[in-house]
Amino acid sequence: MAAKPKKGTFMADNKQDNRPLSPFMIGQYYRPQWTSMTSIFTRITGLSLLVSALMIVWWFVAASAGPDAFAVANGFLTSWFGDLVLFLSTWAMWYHMLFGIRHLIWDSGRMLEVDQSELYAQAALVGSVLLTIFVVIVL
Amino acid sequence: MAFMTDRKRAAGLGSAKTGTEHHWHMMVTSVALVPLVVLFIFTFGAVLGSSYEEVIAYYQRPFPAVIAILTMLVGFNHFANGVRATIEDYTGGMTRKALIIGMTCLSYTAAAFAIFAIVRIAL
């Protein structure tokens, strides 16, 4: 493969400005909206759930290995730090679920109007907090 | 100056031509995960904090064990495909390939360890 030509070598380079690119637009160039902010947080919550998922895998593996290994993993998960991670993950889980359902609704061709989408976003945000509080009370 | 135009530069870089299967897969796993995750939160959450003996006895019951196995299996599958979309959105070239392969391997490894452990406890 030939070496990458320098910028300015091609005719089309005239139009290659250093313009801002999606997805790094929110805040700097776009006013944050309910739709865009709740959308990016769906992705962030989904990715961050890996942390607690791996903690739970460790917990299961330790439980299968025996009482000593279990004591270490269980001690970590039930420590204040483990509790905090699992608490935040519970919220992330509800959030990701409620906003994932929004995608399923959108895919069915419904609630595509901006006002409906914003209403769902606000309701689902409140819902995710309430469901998290419910889990904390019940469990 | 070479006559490289925007049209020429864009040729071949368009839509991936595929992706319907990926999207459908995300829909199937997300729908499946709605009941699974709710059941997992309330079964795992109920036993977390109990003693070793109680945890072992709990996961020897078929219902909590199957819920946990399915949540790990479908959950990590959903994660592998979800993180793939994220990687494809933000990276390119060798970084993209390395991250997709790495995260896919991590997902299946984690799922396999979890399922092996749950089966070992249950049997």
- The overall pLDDT average of chain A reads 88
**What does the radius of gyration of chain B come to?**
21 Å
Number of helices of chain A: 4
Outline the biggest β-sheet of chain B.
none
Search tags:
heterodimer, A: 139 residues, mainly alpha, B: 123 residues, 5 helices
What does this structure look like?
The complex is a heterodimer of chains A (139) and B (123). Chain A has 139 residues and is an all-alpha fold. Chain A is built from four helices and no strands. In chain A, α1 (34-65) runs antiparallel to α2 (67-77), α1 (34-65) crosses α3 and α3 runs antiparallel to α4 (114-138). The model of chain A has no long low-confidence stretch (mean pLDDT 88). Chain A has one domain (35-138): 3 helical TM bundles of succinate and fumarate reductases, CATH 1.20.1300. The termini of chain A are far apart. In chain A, 69% of the residues lie in helices and 0% in strands. The longest helix of chain B is centred in the last third of the chain and has 30 residues, at 93-122. Chain B has a domain at 60-123. The mean pLDDT of chain B is 92. Chain B is mainly alpha-helical. Classes of the chains: A mainly alpha (139), B mainly alpha (123). The A-B interface holds A 5, 9-13, 15, 23, 43, 46-47, 49-50, 53-54, 56-57, 59-61, 63-65, 67, 70-71, 74, 77-78, 86, 90, 93, 97, 100-101, 103-104, 107, 135, 138-139 and B 1-6, 8-9, 27, 30-31, 33-34, 37, 41-42, 44-46, 48-49, 52, 55-56, 59, 68, 72, 75-76, 79, 82-83, 86, 89-90, 110, 113-114, 116-118, 120-121.
